Amino acid sequence: MYTQEFAPEVELRKSKVVAALNAMNTDAILIGTNVNNYYMAGRVFSGYVYINREGYLHYYVKRPALLKGDNITYIRKPEDIPALLQEAGVATPTTIGLEMDFMSYSDIARLAKLFPDATATNGSGIMRYVRATKTAYEIEKTRISAQGHMSVYKSLQGIYHPGMTDIELQIEIEARLRRAGCLGIFRVAGPSMEVFMGSLISGDNADNPSPYDFAMGGAGLDSSLPGGCNGTVIEPGMSTMVDLCGNFTGYMTDISRTYSVGKLSDLAYRAHNCSVAIHHAIKDMARPGVKAADIYNLSRSMAEEAGLSEYFMGHNQQAGFMGHGVGIEINEAPVLAPRSRDVLEAGNIIAVEPKFVIPGTGAVGIENTYLITAEGCENLTDFCEDVMPLD
Amino acid sequence: MYTQEFAPEVELRKSKVVAALNAMNTDAILIGTNVNNYYMAGRVFSGYVYINREGYLHYYVKRPALLKGDNITYIRKPEDIPALLQEAGVATPTTIGLEMDFMSYSDIARLAKLFPDATATNGSGIMRYVRATKTAYEIEKTRISAQGHMSVYKSLQGIYHPGMTDIELQIEIEARLRRAGCLGIFRVAGPSMEVFMGSLISGDNADNPSPYDFAMGGAGLDSSLPGGCNGTVIEPGMSTMVDLCGNFTGYMTDISRTYSVGKLSDLAYRAHNCSVAIHHAIKDMARPGVKAADIYNLSRSMAEEAGLSEYFMGHNQQAGFMGHGVGIEINEAPVLAPRSRDVLEAGNIIAVEPKFVIPGTGAVGIENTYLITAEGCENLTDFCEDVMPLD
Prior knowledge:
Two copies of one chain form a homodimer. The first copy, chain A, is α+β, with helices and mostly antiparallel strands. Chain A folds into two domains: 4-131, Creatine Amidinohydrolase, Chain A, domain 1; 133-389, Creatine Amidinohydrolase. Chain A has helices spanning 7-23, 34-41, 81-87, 105-112, 124-132, 136-153, 166-179, 266-285, 292-305, and strands at 28-31, 46-52, 57-63, 72-74, 95-98, 119-122, 198-202, 239-244, 246-247, 252-253, 257-260, 323-325, 332-336, 349-352, 355-358, 362-365, 368-372, 377-379, 388-389. A six-stranded mixed beta sheet of chain A has the order 4-3-2-1-5-6, with helices on both faces. A five-stranded antiparallel beta sheet of chain A has the order 13-12-14-17-18. In chain A, helix 8 (266-285) packs antiparallel against helix 9 (292-305). Chains A and B meet through helix 4 and helix 7 of A and helix 4 and helix 7 of B.
C-alpha cells in the first residue's frame, strides 16, 4: 500500500484518529471516501479503512489490483468486512463512526447494516478535525506546492497582449501551472461545490454572483459552470484576480494575487492596500488559541474603518467567510467566519483572503496560505503582495 | 433563471420527470444536486427543484443572487420549503423522491424531515432514467462538443518531439482543448470517481491498475491521483491512448484514439483492428429495444474469437464494462456491461470503448460516442479510426 518510509506517518495519523475516537466516545470508524482513504494510506484506493480505539487499523481494498501489505485484505463488497474483523479477533464495536456528511445516503445505509448491534454516528467531524492539524510530512508537501504555485504567479509579467480575454489568460496560466507540476485536480468538499482549475476574474465580472460558495464569483463561460471567466476582454484600468489551483503534491496551497494592465483607480489601490494591511495584522495575531471568528472580525473591522465595507468579500453578493483551512481539499477546517467556533491550533494551514470588489475596476486584494506554529504564524506563500503588471 | 427560448425545454424535461414519477408511483421529487439542478433549470444554482405528479415545478434558490422568474423563490435553508409549498396551495406529498445515491446521508436526513408525513424514497433512479434519453436540445449541445473534441484529436500529427513524456503531451492537448472551447470540468458520478481532464496513457503504463472505475488505468504522477500519465517517455513502438475531456457545452462527448510514434507490434494492430470491427458491428446492431448486455456480449465474443480475451478491457486489471451513457456526466445510463438490465431507447447517447492492453506496446482501440435514433445508431464522432501518427 505504502512505502516503508511512510509507515511512521500512518502510525502518527492513526494515533490522531484514535485520540479523536476516544474524545468522541466512539469505538471505531469505517471510512471510505477518496480523501480520507488517501489521508490514512498515503494513496487513493477504492475501499475502506477500519480503525478502532485499540489502535487496530486495516485496509479493505476493492481497487487497484496488486497492492501488497500485511494490513491489506482484498474484498469484493463491504459486506465482506464483518467476518474479516471477527477472524482477526477484533472486538465488535458498539458505536461506529461513518462519514455521513460526505458519503451518500445509500452508501451509509449499506455500511450501517454491517454493524447491526452498533450505533452508527457521524464520523465526518472526526476526520475533519484530525486533518485540520497537519503533520510535519504534510507541511513539507504543502511547502512543495507553495514553491511551484508561487513560481508561476511570479512569471506573469509580459503575458498580456492587447485584446486578450480573461479565458485566454487563464488557459495560459493553467498550462504554466501544469508544466510546473500542478496535478490540476482541485478537490473541494461539499455537494454544491465544483470548479475546474480555480478562478480568474477580470473587471466587472467580479460583481457577477455565482452559485458556488467561493470567496469570489464571476459569471462563467457556460451556464453549466457559472463561475469565473466570462470572456471579458482585459483592458487597461481593469484588475484581474488570479486564484488558480496550487495542487502539486496532493496538498494544496491557495494563493490569489491581483494583476493589472496600466493603472487602477485610487479606490482600488486603497482597497488592495487594506487587504495587505489585514494580512499583516492577521500574521501578527494568529497563533494557537486564537478564535477563528476573531480573525474574521478583525478583518471586517479594518475594512469598515477604511470605509470599504460595501466592497468587502464581494459587492452584489458577499461571501460569509474570509478564510479557510486548506490541505487535501481546498475548504478544510478551521473556517474564518463570524460564527465559526474553531480555535486555531499548531499545525493548522489556513488560506486568508480578504478581498474587495470595486465596481468599474474588479476584484483586488491578496490571498496567502499560512502555517500556524507553536510560536505564531508563518507565511508559506511569501512573495510580492503589490498589484502586479501583466503587460 | 433561464431564457424564454429555454422555457419549452423545461416543460419537456418536466413532462419526462412527471411520467417517471407516475411510473414509480411517487408523488413528488425534491432535487438538489448540481447536475440535476442544471438539468431542470438549464443552469447550475445552489438550491432545490420541487416537481410533483400534477406538474408543479418550482425552484428554491440559495445562490446566486439576482436570478429572476415567476417560478423562483429565494430561501435561506431547505426548512423554508414546506411553508412555501403550502402557501402555493400545493398538495402535501405522501411519497417524496430524494437523490439518495448522490446526496450525503446528512443532507438526505435533513430533507426527509421536511415532509414528516411522507415516505421518502430513492429518487436517484428517476433522474438517471430521465436523463438517459436526450432531448433534441441536448443532442445539439452534444454535437457541438463532438465538433470541438474531434478538431483537437485530428490536429495531433507533428506534436511529438523525441524525449517527450506522456504528461508533456497531455498538457499540450489539454491546452488545445481549452483553446478550442473545452470547459475543462469533467463531471463523473460516484463517490470513488475523480479525474482531472481525462486520461492519456503511453506504453506499459496502460497495465498499471488504478483505483478508479474507468475503462483504462495508469499509475498517475502522484499517489493522490493514481490514474493516467506516469511520466513515461514516449518511444517509437509504443502506443498512446488519448481519452481526454470533451465538455464544450455542459454535455460531453467521449472519444478515444490510439496514436503512435513509428510502427506498433503486429499483435497491437490486430487488436486495434478488432476494436474497430467491434464498433462497426455495434453500429449495425444498436437500435431501440436492443439489450445493453447483448452489446457487451457481442464485443466480448468478437475479442474471444480473435484470440484477444486476455487483453480485452485491460490485462492486469480488466474493466467490467465496455461502454456507458454520456451527457452531463461521463457515466450515465445505459451501462454496457454483462449484467446490465438496460435496454437501448431512442435518445440514448452512449460511449463505446472496446479497448485492449497489449504488454510491451500499451493500450489500443478506439472510443466513439453514438446517438441511438428511432432508425438505428448515428456516430457523433465520425473521423479517422486508424492508429494515428504523433510524429
